[in-house]
Amino acid sequence: MSPSPRDLPRLVVAALRGGSGKTTLTLGLIQALAGRGLAVAPFKKGPDYIDPFWLGAAAGHACRNLDPFLLGRRQVLDSFGYHSRGRDVAVVEGNRGLFDGLDAAGSYSTAELAKLLSAPVALVVDCSMASRTVAAVVLGCQRFDPELNLAGVILNPVANRRQEGVIRRAIADSTGLPVLGAVPRLDLDMPERHMGLVPPQEHHRVAEALATAAKSVAAHVDLEALLAIMKAAPPWPHPGPPQGLFPPAPASPGPAIGVVRDPAFGFYYPENLEALANHGARLVFCSALGDERLPRVDALYLGGGFPETHARELSANQSFRASLRAAAEAGLPIYAECGGLMYLGRNIVADGQAWPMAGVFPLDFIMEKKPQGHGYTNCRVIGQNPFLPLGCEFRAHEFHYSNPRWLCQEGCEMVFEVLRGRALQGQDGGILYKNTLGTYHHVHALGLKEWAPGMVAAASRRRSQVS
């Protein structure tokens, strides 16, 4: 018998474009709600690592990504319900513009996600050097999709009371929507990098920045009106959990899987690590920056991050690089994504300086000024490898400024065909050397359900071979 639907006050925070202050407002909103004693379940729409780090820091627990392209609609519904259990409210930060998606129909947009979640939308509108025109923009959004529950507007930033008053009256007269807040330009210590915030792991005053954002939101946003909108959302009928997070039957304690996690490598979806542990892996965390050598593990997960900004320190840690290279030569199963792929190359070349890396793959990675791969990708497994079955097709995403330069191809095979997105060469997107696989394409365990059991199986085979 299915559980009865439960109350789940919720909200999607959207904007007209990226870089409009939406993340800062969402952080402040989560902190302000938490300040009222509410347990907030934080979510982020789309493939993203850095904003969820901040949203999770604001809420006090992990933020989850909701991406219909990567996960599928049913997985999004189950993940949202499962990861909001035991919380008082749920807040979802959208991405890009409200209606921006893969195509002219807005497929996989923030608006489509809001409708899937039956969630009201608070629209953050940039008011810079505008007044009544803001109302015209809001009216357009309101009428563009009548099925969307556009429930209110937050003005950001407002220059003065006169501008705010004109915009408030114009929106009220033309749309009938409430203006839930008008926030002045905030001077927060939250620097950006690569079209997003710097990760909190590299920020020295996280608590101070979040407290400032919360204070500003509490002072300039009508939290009572916002909570009333959230509480008007219909009961939530989907209990979860999503498929792939747990094995069909309880797993016995299994192999040790290393995870390189430090300021250089931090791009891991929480569900990826949880799925590995749920399928029986014992996770062993280590640092390519601070550890002398790789710990004793049966497999290694080397995620993305910013190795280029830590290239000097990574290169200086010669003992860790050497131990990793030796482990790869000995056949350790290693799965590396994007920044991890770059670390496994010969050199990272930034601003004309070549920094030696682990040297597993015969590739140099040249840092460019503009993104070399950005967006959703589709791949097919075309070669034998330790982790994924032949013929498996999967969705992923990429975002990198590096350009690979081949030195040779001796000993390497290409095991992924890239159907959409950037490849390493031609249409080939996954490089395999012995049992080490590197790719630019980030996967989500709830979207590629074969990934976690494949990682654990590879680690288990390795453990049985060396025991």
Count of discrete alpha- or pi-helical segments spanning 4 or more residues? 14
Alpha-beta content class:
alpha/beta
* Lateral arrangement of strands in the main beta sheet: 12-10-13-15-24-23-22-19-20
Shape: globular
Task: Summarize the structure in words.
- This protein is of the alpha/beta class and 467 residues long.
- It has two domains: 10-231, P-loop containing nucleotide triphosphate hydrolases (Rossmann fold, 3-Layer(aba) Sandwich), CATH 3.40.50.300; 256-466, Class I glutamine amidotransferase (GATase) domain (Rossmann fold), CATH 3.40.50.
- 31% of the residues lie in helices and 26% in strands.
- The chain is built from 14 helices and 24 strands.
- The protein has helices at residues 22-35, 50-59, 68-71, 73-83, 110-116, 132-144, 161-175, 206-220, 223-231, 270-278, 311-316, 318-329, 339-343, 451-466; strands at 10-15, 40-45, 64-66, 89-93, 121-125, 150-158, 179-184, 192-193, 196-197, 256-260, 265-267, 282-286, 299-302, 304-305, 334-337, 347-350, 353-356, 363-367, 373-381, 393-400, 402-406, 412-420, 428-433, 436-439.
- A nine-stranded mixed β-sheet has the order 12-10-13-15-24-23-22-19-20. The protein has a seven-stranded parallel β-sheet with strand order 3-2-4-1-5-6-7, sandwiched between helices. Strands 17-16-18-21 form a four-stranded mixed β-sheet.
- Strand 16 and strand 17 (353-356) form a beta hairpin.
